[in-house]
From TrEMBL:
Keywords: Transferase. This is ATE1 transferase. Coiled coil: none annotated. InterPro entries: N-end_Aminoacyl_Trfase, N-end_Aminoacyl_Trfase_C. GO terms for cellular component: cytoplasm. GO terms for molecular function: arginyl-tRNA--protein transferase activity. Pfam families: ATE_C (PF04377). Transmembrane segments: none annotated. The keyword Transferase applies. Residues 66-160 form the N-end rule aminoacyl transferase C-terminal domain.
């Protein structure tokens, strides 16, 4: 048995070289031990989108995200439709006091507010609203399609 400590942040060359293999071990563990279904979202189905109406991905997914937010709020929190319309969604999860910043030594995506979108079969099934800051990542909110609650997307998002 050989144990190796590999720097994950910032990602070392060893981390990058073994990432796929490590991910496959993790996925198998989750399926065997925690009975995760094989169709649980994968790396390629998670998109990090800056919260900006000038960003094409954010703009093109806005309506779908807002609709999912309303479905979640009404199902899980029993909000009324007027409590979770597009204006309320924008105010609560899109308007951020953080300004986007791309520091030379920062992450490739930069700093600021992001929507971490979880896609399955061409539709968004969950969104983690996060702030990426110089010394931490802050989870602001997570909402998901209640039809996919069996995937434990809140737990998956927190671990991710």
């Amino acid at each position: 048995l050989k144990v190796r400590v590999v720097r994950s942040s910032p990602p070392s060359s060893q981390f990058k070289a073994t990432f796929q293999e490590s991910y496959q071990v993790y996925k198998r563990y989750q399926m065997v031990i925690h009975k995760d279904p094989p169709d649980k979202p994968t790396i390629n189905q998670v998109r990090l989108v800056p919260v900006s109406f000038e960003d094409p991905q954010f703009k093109s997914s806005f309506s779908q995200s807002a609709s999912l937010f309303a479905k979640y709020q009404m199902s899980v929190h029993k909000d009324t439709p007027s409590d979770c319309g597009e204006n309320e969604f924008t105010r609560f999860l899109c308007d951020s006091p953080l300004e986007a910043e791309h520091a030379p030594n920062g992450p490739e995506c930069g700093y600021g507010s992001f929507h971490q979108q979880y896609w399955l079969d061409g539709k968004i099934i969950a969104v983690g609203v996060i702030d990426i800051l110089p010394y931490c990542v802050s989870s602001v909110y997570l909402y998901y399609d209640p039809d996919f609650s069996f995937l434990s997307l809140g737990v998956y998002s927190a671990l991710r």
